[in-house]
Amino acid sequence: MTGPAAITLRGVGKRYGKNTALDGLDLEVAEGEFFCLLGPSGAGKTTTLKTIAGLEQPQAGTVELGGADMAGVEPYDRGVAMCFESYALYPHRTAYDNLASPLRSPRHRLPAHEARERIGEIAELLGIGALLDRQVGRLSNGQRQRVALGRVLVRPARAFLLDEPLSHLDAKLRQAMRAELRAIGAVRRTTTLYVTHDSVEALALGDRIGVIRDGRMVQTGTREELWHRPCDTFVARSFGRPRINLLPGTVTPEGHFRSSDGAYELPLAVPAPPGTAVQLGVRPRDIGLGAPAGTGGGPALELTGAVHVTELLGRATEVTVRIGGQRLSLVVPRAEAAGLSPDRPVRLSVAPESLLLFEADRPARPGRRIST
Ligand SMILES: Nc1ncnc2c1ncn2[C@@H]1O[C@H](COP(=O)(O)OP(=O)(O)OP(=O)(O)O)[C@@H](O)[C@H]1O
């Protein structure tokens, strides 16, 4: 039998004056899980962490830690460790002192040699082992951010709440740190709720990911679930660069997909009544250039269009193709795109199983997925 979830939020509502930060948020993080909360700026990510930590009181709903209701429980007694984006460090003390300070509190006091060992492991993995004798005020922003993160991770906690802890690092270091972070023993053993607006980071780190928008949880799942079965176009657009193509169209009397400008029709079985406004979702890397390559699945669908522009993306090339009045983006190996110039006619192929169908977007509601 499994025990209670480490973190459970049910219907949590939090308003600041007229501003709604959380609007009936539900969230469940299992014991030991590394859960990434992904959402755009203002979605309510930081408010979620603060509410769990007890730094904000929700006006509605419940917060449970390990199955116990946290209403009225002081932050200090909740046993969670939170890393803020604005890190409060002691600038005149050394990095080591800053890392050691949480271990001096009566609750977390450790014998000196154990404290040294714990700090050593974490500092090494965060790449700040050589900076321990330096004054924090003299470190770069990125180095300081890693000290702040280390300070959270050194003390034993029932859960770590991390708010964009790698945001001040340059791209290369951020990528390296992602791999290291999950290797830290304390992180492996401790439930971690990690906030980010970077979908690449969420995909790389999360055992599961929750996508939050306007203070509500839109979808939670593994990276595969969110990638292959996004519940709506908002989630579909949240993952993958270049973004998923969403081609507007309608359902024909035969139940097929016809582009909104009538330029092409695809013989798909669209699970919606004729005349319904829909969107066809296809990721740029799922589209091939030229005739179908004859891969396992069903027969590939073909489209013809004209090259609009090409753009180099390292070893691959993004090709934007015009089909009637629509634009479609695909990513192909650089060699395949050599010699493609604007206006050149091209054939495209796509495997039907990689297509997603959504309802049309409405002003305040992204279209829901209708394909299974
Ligand atoms: N103390 C506050 N007073 C007033 N409004 C607030 C306060 N804190 C947050 N908000 C508002 O609540 C909403 C959610 O904010 P929150 O900081 O949780 O979002 P976020 O997803 O963490 O965004 P970001 O990535 O920009 O930090 C925003 O509209 C924000 O302006």
Automatic annotation (TrEMBL):
PROSITE patterns, A to Z: ABC_TRANSPORTER_2
Domain of life of the native organism: Bacteria
UniProt keyword annotation of Transmembrane helix present: no
GO molecular function, one term: ATP binding
Keyword match Nucleus: no
Keywords linked to the UniProt accession: ATP-binding, Nucleotide-binding, Transport
Domain ABC transporter: 7-239
Protein name: Sugar ABC transporter ATP-binding protein
